[in-house]
């Protein structure tokens, strides 16, 4: 057990080192090596941060959703495994909130530089804001509900959020839009110049690694908290048995 | 058939409870009236008829949304007295009938509030709708159901939480935003006459789709929430 923990810790440090290297690489590519954007100048370089983070912030909600479904399935059948799924759902939701916040903030900076406004009620911006709101409300529910049932209630809310997000997203097709069409797979003219690809992919890889790193770290922390809670409950039960009648 | 029977029993129980106290409906009507008065003071609606038409759809829905939130918490709190909810959990009838009965009862209450508020609203805002007003008879019930079905569900979800009065709007509003968007757009389109019937139809269809999807999700998950321990 001790050895396993040690080797896991080594893997984590190795991952962290590679992650920092990849992020430095991505920074160098994005800021120094890629040519300046013809229309937007240096402000266009925020693309290499905004778009990868936006893509990743749409990935973590899926982890949260599937972990929540797993929790609901295991809830009665195998409560201990279900707790693991619940810890995963919580960490995925927290990372989602972080990525969605960064996406919104970088988007605002970029919007100010190119559109001249910080914010517009365009469907894509609105749906990202809504994604952020949904997961903040998920975390709020976890804080507010009483300990015994917060896992189940949060899992139920996660299902609602997962159903809500595609509905919100579809409204893009029905409402006017100021945000550019999706860069990848958005139509015949979409896609980016090959000179931009290295910076984009280094950053995508780097931020994906960072997100996974945060998730694993937070997951380990949450698991320890759960185990400590179980230990405490067990001790309380044992102590209550020792009281002479 | 048996399911329908249980559902009607629950509905009848909720209607009778409300009939005896009339807390929810009176509270909601007065609250919605206050919201309308506050907005009326803020905007001077009689002076700017065009602006009034553009914003009154949103004001109407905001008033109804906040008013229904005040009543939704109450609708489950009255089940907690004398451990009625524990008895409901042990009852052999399907849990979703309890939920649907309560959601339908809440829907009726909010519809009554709408019927009372609509003339007051027209008078206070000096409103002259330019579109086909009969479409509101379709939009209002669909929008109300979207608010009430999720609201009833989340009120049950937050029932045993700390700060449950605060928790309900925090959960309900983000989930309801697509429905709110659709109903406000459709209502404003009818009032201003700016949207053509096809666009209004798209919003109404979106609203109906939202209703169907979330009613299904609520029915499927209600038992989990009721027995969450």
Rg of chain A (CA only): 22 Å
Measured by DSSP, the beta-strand proportion of chain B falls in under 5%
The backbone outline of chain B, from C-alpha atoms, is globular
Largest sheet of chain B: none
Helix percentage of chain A: over 70%
Pick out the low-confidence regions of chain A. none
Summary, kept brief:
The complex is a heterodimer of chains A (245) and B (229). Chain A is built from seven helices and no strands. Chain A is mainly alpha-helical.
Tell me what you see in this structure.
The complex is a heterodimer of chains A (245) and B (229). Chain A is an all-alpha fold. Chain A has one domain (14-33, 40-179, 197-228). In chain A, 78% of the residues lie in helices and 0% in strands. With 229 residues, chain B is mainly α. Chain B has one domain (2-226). In chain B, helix 1 packs across helix 5, helix 3 (49-80) runs parallel beside helix 6 (136-157) and helix 6 packs antiparallel against helix 7. The radius of gyration of chain B is 18 Å and the shape is globular. The two termini of chain B are 31 Å apart.
Features:
heterodimer; A: 245 residues; 7 helices; globular; B: 229 residues; 8 helices
Please specify the SSE layout and strand pairing.
The complex is a heterodimer of chains A (245) and B (229).
Chain A: H1 2-33, H2 47-57, H3 60-77, H4 79-114, H5 123-144, H6 150-174, H7 197-242
Chain B: H1 2-21, H2 23-43, H3 49-80, H4 84-90, H5 95-125, H6 136-157, H7 164-192, H8 197-226
């Amino acid at each position: 057990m001790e050895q396993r923990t040690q080797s896991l810790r080594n893997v984590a440090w190795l991952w962290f080192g590679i992650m920092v290297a990849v992020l430095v690489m991505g920074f160098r590519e994005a800021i120094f090596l890629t040519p300046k954007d013809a229309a937007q100048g240096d402000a266009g370089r925020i693309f290499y941060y905004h778009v990868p983070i936006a893509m990743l912030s749409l990935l973590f909600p899926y982890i949260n959703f599937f972990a929540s479904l797993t929790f609901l399935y295991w809830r009665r059948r195998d409560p201990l495994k279900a707790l693991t799924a619940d810890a995963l759902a919580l960490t995925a939701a927290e990372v989602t909130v972080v990525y969605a916040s960064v996406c919104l903030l970088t988007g605002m900076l970029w919007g100010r530089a190119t559109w001249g406004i910080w914010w517009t009620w365009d469907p894509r911006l609105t749906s990202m804001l809504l994604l952020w709101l949904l997961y903040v409300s998920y975390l709020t529910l976890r804080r507010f509900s009483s300990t015994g049932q917060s896992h189940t209630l949060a899992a139920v809310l996660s299902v609602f959020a997962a159903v809500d997000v595609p509905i919100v997203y579809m409204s893009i097709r029905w409402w006017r839009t100021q945000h550019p069409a999706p860069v990848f797979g958005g139509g015949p003219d979409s896609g980016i110049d090959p000179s931009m690809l290295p910076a984009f992919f280094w950053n995508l890889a780097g931020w994906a690694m960072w997100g996974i790193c945060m998730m694993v770290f937070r997951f380990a922390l949450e698991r320890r908290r759960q185990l400590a809670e179980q230990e405490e409950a067990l001790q309380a039960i044992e102590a209550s048995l020792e009281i002479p009648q | 058939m048996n399911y329908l029977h249980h559902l009607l029993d629950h509905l009848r129980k909720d209607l009778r409870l409300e009939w005896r106290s009339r807390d929810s409906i009176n509270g909601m009507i007065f609250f919605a009236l206050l919201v309308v008065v506050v907005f009326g003071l803020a905007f001077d609606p009689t002076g700017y008829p065009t602006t009034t038409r553009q914003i009154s759809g949103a004001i109407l829905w905001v008033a109804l949304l906040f008013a229904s939130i005040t009543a939704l918490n109450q609708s489950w709190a009255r089940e907690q007295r004398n451990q009625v909810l524990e008895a409901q959990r042990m009852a052999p009838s399907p849990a979703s009938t309890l939920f649907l009965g309560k959601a339908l009862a809440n829907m009726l209450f909010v519809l009554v509030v709408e019927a009372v508020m609509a003339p007051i609203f027209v008078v206070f805002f000096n409103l002259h709708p330019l579109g086909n007003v009969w479409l509101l008879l379709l939009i209002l019930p669909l929008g109300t159901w979207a608010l009430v079905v999720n609201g009833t569900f989340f009120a049950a979800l937050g029932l045993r939480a700390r700060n449950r009065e605060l928790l309900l709007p925090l959960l309900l509003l983000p989930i309801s935003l697509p429905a709110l968007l659709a109903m406000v757009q459709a209502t404003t389109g009818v009032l201003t006459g700016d949207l053509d019937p096809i666009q209004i139809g798209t919003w109404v269809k979106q609203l109906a789709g939202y209703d169907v999807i979330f009613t299904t999700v609520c029915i499927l998950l209600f038992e989990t929430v009721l027995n969450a321990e």
